[in-house]
Here is the input.
Amino acid sequence: MDNNLYISNQKLHTPRLILRWLDKSDRDLIFALRLDLRVILHTGIAQYLDIAQADDFIQRIEQDMKNNKSLTWTMFLLSTGHSIGTICFWNLSADKKEAELGYDLLPEYWGQGYVPEAILAVLDFGFKHCGFDNIYAYPSSAHTASCRVLEKTGFRFVKETDTEAEDGVYRSSVYKITVNELS
Ligand SMILES: CC(C)(COP(=O)(O)OP(=O)(O)OC[C@H]1O[C@@H](n2cnc3c(N)ncnc32)[C@H](O)[C@@H]1OP(=O)(O)O)[C@@H](O)C(=O)NCCC(=O)NCCS
Here is the structure.
Protein backbone atom coordinates (compact mmCIF):
# COMPACT_ATOMS: atom_id res chain seq x y z
CA MET A 1 0.00 0.00 0.00
CA ASP A 2 1.23 3.48 -0.87
CA ASN A 3 2.06 5.57 2.22
CA ASN A 4 1.74 8.81 0.32
CA LEU A 5 -1.98 9.12 -0.37
CA TYR A 6 -1.52 12.13 -2.65
CA ILE A 7 -0.02 11.39 -6.07
CA SER A 8 0.66 14.54 -8.07
CA ASN A 9 -1.19 14.82 -11.39
CA GLN A 10 -3.42 11.85 -10.53
CA LYS A 11 -6.81 11.98 -12.28
CA LEU A 12 -9.86 9.79 -11.82
CA HIS A 13 -12.16 9.08 -14.75
CA THR A 14 -15.85 8.16 -14.71
CA PRO A 15 -18.23 7.84 -17.68
CA ARG A 16 -19.15 11.55 -17.57
CA LEU A 17 -16.56 13.18 -15.29
CA ILE A 18 -12.88 13.80 -14.77
CA LEU A 19 -11.71 14.35 -11.20
CA ARG A 20 -8.41 16.12 -10.58
CA TRP A 21 -6.88 17.57 -7.44
CA LEU A 22 -8.28 20.89 -6.28
CA ASP A 23 -5.89 23.73 -7.06
CA LYS A 24 -5.67 27.53 -7.15
CA SER A 25 -7.42 27.71 -10.50
CA ASP A 26 -10.63 26.49 -8.79
CA ARG A 27 -11.17 29.72 -6.81
CA ASP A 28 -14.27 30.77 -8.79
CA LEU A 29 -15.87 27.35 -8.32
CA ILE A 30 -15.16 27.30 -4.58
CA PHE A 31 -16.49 30.81 -4.18
CA ALA A 32 -19.64 30.00 -6.17
CA LEU A 33 -20.28 26.88 -4.05
CA ARG A 34 -19.68 28.60 -0.71
CA LEU A 35 -21.65 31.72 -1.67
CA ASP A 36 -24.77 29.76 -2.64
CA LEU A 37 -27.10 29.25 0.32
CA ARG A 38 -28.73 26.26 -1.42
CA VAL A 39 -25.36 24.49 -1.43
CA ILE A 40 -24.29 25.28 2.13
CA LEU A 41 -27.73 24.68 3.65
CA HIS A 42 -27.49 21.55 5.88
CA THR A 43 -23.68 21.51 5.73
CA GLY A 44 -22.83 23.73 8.71
CA ILE A 45 -20.41 25.70 6.52
CA ALA A 46 -20.47 29.48 6.92
CA GLN A 47 -21.23 31.46 3.75
CA TYR A 48 -18.26 33.04 1.92
CA LEU A 49 -18.72 36.69 1.02
CA ASP A 50 -15.22 37.42 -0.29
CA ILE A 51 -13.32 35.44 -2.92
CA ALA A 52 -10.19 35.73 -0.75
CA GLN A 53 -11.88 33.15 1.52
CA ALA A 54 -11.85 30.71 -1.40
CA ASP A 55 -8.13 31.36 -1.91
CA ASP A 56 -7.46 30.71 1.79
CA PHE A 57 -9.52 27.53 1.69
CA ILE A 58 -7.63 26.21 -1.35
CA GLN A 59 -4.29 27.03 0.24
CA ARG A 60 -5.29 25.09 3.40
CA ILE A 61 -6.48 22.12 1.39
CA GLU A 62 -3.32 22.04 -0.74
CA GLN A 63 -1.26 21.97 2.46
CA ASP A 64 -3.47 19.24 3.96
CA MET A 65 -3.10 17.15 0.81
CA LYS A 66 0.70 17.37 0.94
CA ASN A 67 0.52 16.34 4.63
CA ASN A 68 -1.78 13.36 3.94
CA LYS A 69 -4.60 14.94 5.93
CA SER A 70 -7.08 15.25 3.12
CA LEU A 71 -7.67 14.41 -0.53
CA THR A 72 -9.85 16.83 -2.47
CA TRP A 73 -10.80 16.58 -6.12
CA THR A 74 -12.56 19.01 -8.42
CA MET A 75 -15.19 17.42 -10.67
CA PHE A 76 -15.21 18.39 -14.35
CA LEU A 77 -17.86 17.50 -16.91
CA LEU A 78 -16.29 15.59 -19.78
CA SER A 79 -18.84 17.00 -22.23
CA THR A 80 -18.12 20.70 -21.59
CA GLY A 81 -14.95 20.85 -19.49
CA HIS A 82 -16.81 22.90 -16.85
CA SER A 83 -15.99 22.42 -13.18
CA ILE A 84 -19.18 21.53 -11.30
CA GLY A 85 -18.28 20.61 -7.73
CA THR A 86 -15.82 18.98 -5.37
CA ILE A 87 -15.46 15.68 -3.54
CA CYS A 88 -13.05 14.86 -0.75
CA PHE A 89 -11.74 12.56 1.94
CA TRP A 90 -10.93 14.43 5.13
CA ASN A 91 -10.90 13.91 8.89
CA LEU A 92 -8.54 10.96 8.40
CA SER A 93 -7.90 8.84 11.50
CA ALA A 94 -4.37 8.89 12.95
CA ASP A 95 -3.60 5.45 11.45
CA LYS A 96 -5.03 6.57 8.06
CA LYS A 97 -7.44 3.63 8.02
CA GLU A 98 -10.62 5.70 8.25
CA ALA A 99 -11.74 8.79 6.40
CA GLU A 100 -14.80 10.98 6.05
CA LEU A 101 -16.36 11.66 2.66
CA GLY A 102 -17.57 15.14 1.67
CA TYR A 103 -18.96 16.57 -1.58
CA ASP A 104 -20.78 19.51 -3.10
CA LEU A 105 -22.21 20.35 -6.49
CA LEU A 106 -23.45 23.52 -8.20
CA PRO A 107 -27.27 23.47 -8.08
CA GLU A 108 -27.73 23.57 -11.87
CA TYR A 109 -26.22 20.07 -11.97
CA TRP A 110 -28.27 18.49 -9.18
CA GLY A 111 -30.47 15.47 -9.88
CA GLN A 112 -28.37 14.03 -12.72
CA GLY A 113 -26.43 11.45 -10.72
CA TYR A 114 -23.06 13.20 -10.96
CA VAL A 115 -22.15 12.96 -7.28
CA PRO A 116 -22.96 9.22 -7.02
CA GLU A 117 -20.77 8.69 -10.10
CA ALA A 118 -17.91 10.59 -8.45
CA ILE A 119 -18.41 8.78 -5.14
CA LEU A 120 -17.94 5.37 -6.77
CA ALA A 121 -14.65 6.54 -8.31
CA VAL A 122 -13.23 7.95 -5.06
CA LEU A 123 -14.38 4.93 -3.02
CA ASP A 124 -12.42 2.70 -5.38
CA PHE A 125 -9.38 4.99 -4.96
CA GLY A 126 -9.83 5.23 -1.19
CA PHE A 127 -10.04 1.50 -0.59
CA LYS A 128 -7.56 0.30 -3.23
CA HIS A 129 -4.91 3.02 -3.29
CA CYS A 130 -5.20 4.65 0.15
CA GLY A 131 -5.89 1.42 2.02
CA PHE A 132 -8.83 2.76 4.01
CA ASP A 133 -10.79 0.13 5.95
CA ASN A 134 -13.85 2.30 6.59
CA ILE A 135 -15.26 5.46 5.02
CA TYR A 136 -17.87 7.53 6.84
CA ALA A 137 -20.21 10.36 5.92
CA TYR A 138 -22.22 12.60 8.25
CA PRO A 139 -24.97 14.33 6.24
CA SER A 140 -27.57 16.34 8.09
CA SER A 141 -30.52 14.02 8.77
CA ALA A 142 -32.74 16.68 7.19
CA HIS A 143 -30.78 16.54 3.93
CA THR A 144 -32.58 13.76 2.08
CA ALA A 145 -30.70 14.28 -1.23
CA SER A 146 -27.37 13.74 0.47
CA CYS A 147 -28.62 10.68 2.38
CA ARG A 148 -29.94 9.29 -0.92
CA VAL A 149 -26.60 9.56 -2.73
CA LEU A 150 -24.95 7.63 0.09
CA GLU A 151 -27.60 4.90 0.06
CA LYS A 152 -27.32 4.64 -3.74
CA THR A 153 -23.55 4.15 -3.55
CA GLY A 154 -23.53 1.36 -0.96
CA PHE A 155 -23.22 3.21 2.34
CA ARG A 156 -25.16 1.82 5.31
CA PHE A 157 -27.02 4.01 7.79
CA VAL A 158 -25.49 3.45 11.24
CA LYS A 159 -27.16 5.90 13.64
CA GLU A 160 -28.05 9.51 14.24
CA THR A 161 -25.73 11.80 16.18
CA ASP A 162 -25.16 15.48 17.02
CA THR A 163 -22.47 17.13 14.90
CA GLU A 164 -20.78 20.42 15.72
CA ALA A 165 -20.49 22.85 12.82
CA GLU A 166 -19.45 26.45 12.27
CA ASP A 167 -23.05 27.61 12.80
CA GLY A 168 -23.97 25.39 15.75
CA VAL A 169 -24.93 21.79 16.43
CA TYR A 170 -27.11 19.81 14.04
CA ARG A 171 -28.55 16.31 13.90
CA SER A 172 -26.67 14.19 11.41
CA SER A 173 -26.96 10.65 10.11
CA VAL A 174 -23.86 8.50 10.31
CA TYR A 175 -23.27 6.45 7.16
CA LYS A 176 -20.48 3.93 6.72
CA ILE A 177 -19.01 1.67 4.05
CA THR A 178 -16.22 -0.85 4.67
CA VAL A 179 -13.68 -2.15 2.21
CA ASN A 180 -15.53 -5.49 1.95
CA GLU A 181 -18.73 -3.78 0.89
CA LEU A 182 -17.30 -2.11 -2.22
CA SER A 183 -19.35 -3.52 -5.11
C1 LIG B 1 -26.51 16.19 -2.15
C2 LIG B 1 -25.97 16.41 -3.55
C3 LIG B 1 -24.47 16.21 -3.48
C4 LIG B 1 -26.62 15.40 -4.49
O1 LIG B 1 -25.85 15.23 -5.70
P1 LIG B 1 -26.55 14.83 -7.07
O2 LIG B 1 -25.49 14.60 -8.07
O3 LIG B 1 -27.60 15.83 -7.38
O4 LIG B 1 -27.25 13.42 -6.67
P2 LIG B 1 -28.39 12.65 -7.47
O5 LIG B 1 -28.55 13.20 -8.86
O6 LIG B 1 -28.11 11.21 -7.31
O7 LIG B 1 -29.71 13.01 -6.66
C5 LIG B 1 -29.81 12.64 -5.30
C6 LIG B 1 -31.18 13.00 -4.79
O8 LIG B 1 -31.36 14.41 -4.90
C7 LIG B 1 -32.76 14.67 -5.07
N1 LIG B 1 -32.91 15.49 -6.28
C8 LIG B 1 -33.16 15.12 -7.55
N2 LIG B 1 -33.22 16.19 -8.36
C9 LIG B 1 -32.98 17.26 -7.58
C10 LIG B 1 -32.92 18.65 -7.83
N3 LIG B 1 -33.09 19.15 -9.05
N4 LIG B 1 -32.64 19.47 -6.79
C11 LIG B 1 -32.45 18.99 -5.56
N5 LIG B 1 -32.49 17.68 -5.26
C12 LIG B 1 -32.76 16.83 -6.26
C13 LIG B 1 -33.45 13.35 -5.19
O9 LIG B 1 -33.93 13.00 -3.91
C14 LIG B 1 -32.32 12.42 -5.59
O10 LIG B 1 -32.56 11.10 -5.19
P3 LIG B 1 -33.19 10.05 -6.27
O11 LIG B 1 -32.12 9.83 -7.29
O12 LIG B 1 -33.47 8.86 -5.47
O13 LIG B 1 -34.38 10.71 -6.88
C15 LIG B 1 -26.26 17.83 -4.05
O14 LIG B 1 -27.62 18.05 -3.88
C16 LIG B 1 -25.47 18.92 -3.32
O15 LIG B 1 -24.36 19.25 -3.71
N6 LIG B 1 -26.02 19.50 -2.26
C17 LIG B 1 -25.39 20.60 -1.54
C18 LIG B 1 -24.11 20.26 -0.85
C19 LIG B 1 -24.27 19.14 0.14
O16 LIG B 1 -25.31 19.01 0.72
N7 LIG B 1 -23.24 18.34 0.32
C20 LIG B 1 -23.31 17.20 1.20
C21 LIG B 1 -22.86 17.52 2.57
S1 LIG B 1 -22.94 16.02 3.56
Remarks:
- The CA atoms of residues 21 and 73 lie 4 Å apart.
- Residues 39, 42-43, 103-105, 110-116, 139, 143-146, 148-149 surround coenzyme A (CB under 6 Å).
- The chain has one domain: 11-181.
- The longest strand covers residues 168-178.
